[in-house]
Design brief:
Elements lengths: L2 H8 L13 H21 L5 H4 L10 H24 L10 H4 L3 H5 L2 H21 L2 H4 L2 E3 L6 E3 H23 L2
Antiparallel strand pairs: 1-2
Helix pairs in contact: 2-7, 2-9, 4-7, 4-9
Length: 177
Amino acid sequence: MTEQELEHLRYPIGKFSMPKEITKALRDEWIAVLEAFPDRLEQLVANITETQLETPYRPGGWTVRQVIHHVADSHHHSYARFKWALTENKPLIKAYEEKDWAELKDVKHAPIAISLLHIRALHGKLVHLLKCMSDTDFERSFMHPETGREVFLNENLGMYAWHCNHHYAHIESVVVK
């Protein structure tokens, strides 16, 4: 497998690219992605087999089971980051070792139904919060300890809409063949 083919498997929809201008219309599109994601994901995996759940989406990559549990964990962190940024002045968030989390027994062996329910509830809360936020709220930010970068909530929203589609494409590459 060539490096280019591997890169396409790693980023099937391309890497996240932040637009120069984030408008309310674009934020609404991203919120719609987050709102639709639980239904889309549940439909995609409705008839998934155990073999497919244990299949990595690329050589050396996570299994579909790990990806689904990762999405629940990652989006849980994102929700907390929104809340911190809305209630504190540029808080320093806690990073986590997602690769290590993906190797924990709950991620490697737990039924995906647990994370599907978590994603549904979490996205319900997150979307409700996002729809209540003002333009000024989206200009609030947090500090990322690994990059030392200030991340604005506008950006975080876009990144997590992309994250939904990114991992959906990973799962789809295994499930829809």
